[in-house]
Design goal:
The complex is a heterodimer of chains A (about 675) and B (about 120).
Chain A lengths: L1 H37 L5 H4 L7 H55 L14 H50 L3 H16 L3 E7 L5 E6 L9 E3 L6 H8 L3 E3 L12 H6 L3 E9 L2 E10 L7 H40 L3 E6 L4 E4 L2 H6 L3 H4 L14 H17 L3 E8 L5 E12 L5 E10 L1 H37 L4 H33 L6 E5 H11 L1 H7 L2 E4 L6 E5 H17 L6 E9 L2 E8 L31 H11 L4 E6 L3 E9 L6
Parallel strand pairs in A: 13-15
Antiparallel strand pairs in A: 1-2, 1-6, 2-3, 4-5, 5-6, 7-8, 7-11, 9-10, 10-11, 12-14, 15-16, 16-18, 17-18
Chain B lengths: L2 E5 L3 H13 L3 E5 L5 H8 L3 E4 L8 H10 L8 E5 L4 H9 L4 E4 L4 H14 L1
Parallel strand pairs in B: 1-2, 1-3, 3-4, 4-5
Classes of the chains: A alpha+beta (about 675), B alpha/beta (about 120).
């Protein structure tokens, strides 16, 4: 094709040149012909003299030349036409190329970078077209490169956004950072392509503790860098800006934790974490290979660091708040007293477990119930009324109120409850609710009652012997008593005085045992020895009554106890048996092992105790009222019971009036130094 | 001679009162068993009765109520000689128609004075 064009072009050039030769040649030829015809034209220039023109020559000149010119003209015209057409042909080719270039330029302007123009000629225009095409291709390449870079940038932004979103949603959703910290720092590590990442945070003494790391380290919450050490992290915090290290091996400014030093990390980036202006720690990325950080990457890392800082602080607050709440809940729920809070409308906000026991109100059912309607109508009306009063005073007057109220529990027990209502005050002093405390003071009331009872009993029991002492002394002094009777009176005074004295000491013994102040003097007691000693001490009394005290020895029986107390116990029981029996009575003492205890039984065939008296017989000052005689202080058996109780044992009395009494008591085994 | 009946489960109290009153020429009948006291009072017809409060069979208060509700003897002055020293106890006693409430320990001389006063007024 190209060759063909070359040939055509050669032929064209040839023709043009040919024409350029032919036309002057034709004129020359014509001139020659004319000269030949005239015969003068040839010689004349040689001779230098003008010859006179012949007639033929004149004739040729006058007839032949016009004919020749006439014959030559069409050719001349043809040649001129051909030259004209040739010029048009050439100029058209130039125009096409120019137009193509113009269209190409417009296409470029319109953004069509794919345009490639056809190279029509291999001349300068062809070269221009080629250059245009090259330029267009280069432009496209540059534009593509730009677009690719744009795409990359956009993708990175999108990745960053996704990363931030992912972090934020993870951090936002988690209340306890511990659970998700691993995930979060894993994400950061992957995003930045780091080999190791850790997060250090300040403790109260500004030591840097390990909060999280991408390696499973056992050092979580332990100190990594002490306050005084200048680590990269500390440096970044001090500088308040991200720090990058390109070559850690040549970096000697910083102290490195052995873990970091051992791994021979090459490069690192550390961003300090701040909450407002308060530094809280640092986030560090370590790389085994080289890593150059772009400005925007560090900025992004900084943002992540700060998000983590805020999340950490929030999580800490949350954890503290949860712990505080748990603690207060535990305290509330563990409280022995019922604690019930109500709002300003008097509706229950919360109730603890004790409320179920004291008020019979299930905490979960109570919430929202008006406190004045806590009980069914006609149920504990008085109590309800007093409670309402207390709540009203606390709510309306903003001051605490207390009332004691009787109420009947769901089990039908009558209890005394102390209601204490106190207003819950907001910071501005406004009452926002009432906290009510319900304390079952039945026990305290009972103790008070018992104390009063004891005082009354003591004073009552003291009055009778005192009557003998005071009254009889007065009569003796007044001379009311005949001489022979004075001794009798004095004996009564003495024995009643002794009775009083015994009462006092027995009361004190009971009080000491009850208060636990009197320490135990524990030692191993040989049962045979003990019982023999006690029986021997009753020799005179038993002889007077001609009583038969029997005891069959049980070898190797012993227990750990307070010998003096046990002796007193046996003496009291034996004395009772003798006192409340007729002459010739039989008293039997038996000792045996019963499971993990030693059991001692004292039985007599005396008067017995009436069935009405048995349940009360061990009460203080209770003296059998239905039996034959009332004797003693009424404290002996009460004391016996206390002694057995302090040894951890039990005492039981069985008796039948007229047949006798049987008293059992056990002393459980124990270690001597227990 | 006036006759006083004393009911108390404590023998030495009975002995003291008997000795004191008899010396003042007052006839004394003593009784330890309160269960038999009401019948004895009706039988003996004393001018004054001295009762202990706390007695196994029948309390002094119950006995007093019985005396007050029996028209034949309801007019009898009744002394309560008791170890119950609370004000509330005294109130309860007086409400039941007790003439004199005397708490133990007591002065036999004072008791005699009260007895003489009551019997004299009568």
């Amino acid at each position: 094709m190209f060759k063909k064009k070359l040939i055509y072009r050669a032929i064209t050039i040839f023709l043009v040149f040919a024409l350029m030769i032919i036309i002057p040649l034709s004129f020359t030829m014509l001139k020659q012909a004319r000269n030949i015809i005239s015969g003068e034209e040839v010689e004349a220039p040689h001779e230098g003299t003008a010859l006179p023109e012949s007639r033929e020559a004149v004739k040729i000149r006058k007839e032949f030349v016009p004919v020749l010119i006439d014959n030559m003209l069409p050719y001349i015209f043809y040649i001129l036409l051909l030259a004209f057409l040739m010029s048009i042909f050439f100029s058209r080719k130039i125009l096409i190329s120019l137009k193509q270039l113009l269209n190409g330029a417009r296409a470029l302007r319109d953004g069509n970078l794919d345009i490639q123009l056809a190279v029509i000629s291999d001349d300068e225009l062809g070269e221009v077209t080629k250059s245009f095409n090259e330029m267009s291709a280069a432009l496209k390449k540059a534009t593509d490169e730009l677009a690719r870079k744009n795409r990359e940038l956009r993708k990175r932004r999108e990745d960053e956004n996704a990363q931030l979103l992912s972090l934020s949603s993870k951090l936002g959703a988690a209340t306890d950072l511990k659970d998700i910290m691993g995930d979060v720092i894993g994400l950061v590590k992957d995003f930045f392509g780091a080999d190791f990442l850790w997060l250090l945070a300040y403790d109260n003494e500004e030591n840097l503790l390990l909060k999280a790391s991408t390696a499973s380290l056992q050092r979580i919450a332990q100190v990594v860098y002490k306050t005084a050490l200048i680590s990269v992290e500390q440096y970044a915090i001090n500088e308040k800006k991200p720090i990058t290290i390109a070559d850690m091996q040549s970096e000697t400014r910083f102290y490195l934790d052995p873990l970091i030093a051992e791994k021979h990390y090459r490069s690192a980036a550390v961003v300090p974490m701040f909450i407002g202006k308060k530094p809280v720690g640092a986030l560090s990325l370590y790389y085994i290979g080289p890593r150059i950080f772009r400005e925007e990457e560090l900025h992004f890392l900084e943002i992540i660091g700060n998000i983590l800082a805020v999340s950490m602080e929030r999580s800490e607050f949350y954890t503290k708040a949860i712990r505080a709440k748990e603690l207060s809940d535990t305290i509330l729920q563990s409280a022995a007293d019922c604690i019930l809070t109500v709002d300003t409308a008097g509706r229950i906000i919360s109730a603890n477990k004790a409320c179920e026991r004291i008020l019979g109100v299930l905490p979960e059912n109570a919430v929202g119930v008006p406190v004045c309607s806590l009980f069914q109508p006609q149920e504990n009306e008085g109590f309800s009324e007093l409670l309402c009063e207390c709540v009203s005073i606390a709510l309306d007057e903003g001051k605490p109120e207390k009332r004691e109220a009787l109420m009947t529990t769901a089990q039908g027990n009558q209890i005394t409850v102390l209601i204490s209502s106190a207003p819950i005050l907001a910071r501005n002093g406004q009452v926002t609710g009432v906290v009510n405390l319900f304390k079952d003071i039945s026990m305290e009331k009972e103790i008070d009652r018992m104390k009063g009872e004891l005082v009354r009993s003591v004073s009552h029991e003291f009055r009778t012997p005192l009557s003998a002492i005071v009254g009889m002394t007065e009569m003796i002094l007044n001379g009311d008593i005949e001489d022979e009777k004075v001794t009798h009176y004095l004996n009564i005074i003495k024995s009643e005085g002794l009775r009083l004295s015994q009462m006092v000491s027995e009361l004190l013994s009971i009080a000491r045992i009850e208060s636990g102040k009197k320490s135990f003097n524990l030692k191993a007691i040989d049962v045979n020895n003990l019982i023999r000693t006690v029986i021997d001490s009753f020799a005179a009394q038993s002889a007077r009554k001609e009583a038969d005290i029997r005891y069959s020895e049980n070898s190797f029986l012993s227990f750990i106890g307070d010998e003096e107390k046990i002796k007193q116990l046996l003496i009291n029981l034996l004395a009772n048996a003798l006192t409340f029996s007729d002459n010739h009575c039989i008293i039997e003492i038996e000792a045996r092992r019963k499971q993990q205890a030693v059991e001692i039984i004292i039985s007599d065939n005396g008067w017995g105790i009436s069935q009405e008296d048995i349940p009360h017989i061990t009460e203080r000052f209770y003296r059998g009222k239905h039996g034959k005689r009332t004797k003693g202080t009424g404290l002996g058996l009460a004391l016996c019971k206390e002694i057995v109780r302090m040894h951890g044992g039990e005492m039981e009395i069985t008796s039948k009036e007229g047949e006798g009494t049987r008293i059992f008591f056990t002393i459980p085994d124990r270690e001597k130094d227990e | 001679m006036s006759k006083v009946m004393v009911v108390d489960d404590e023998p030495f109290i009975l002995m003291m009162i008997e000795d004191k009153l008899k010396k003042a020429k007052i006839d004394v009948v003593t009784l330890r068993d309160s269960g038999k006291a009401f019948e004895a009072i009706k039988k003996e017809g004393p001018d004054l009765v001295i009762l202990d409060w706390m007695m196994p069979e029948l309390s002094g208060i119950e006995l007093c109520k019985m005396i007050r509700s029996d028209p034949a003897i309801s007019h009898l002055p009744v002394f309560m000689l008791t170890a119950k020293g609370q004000d509330s106890d005294e109130q309860l006693g007086l409400q039941c128609g007790i003439t004199r409430y005397i708490t133990k320990p007591f002065s036999p001389k004072y008791l005699l004075e009260l007895v003489q006063e009551t019997l004299g007024n009568k």
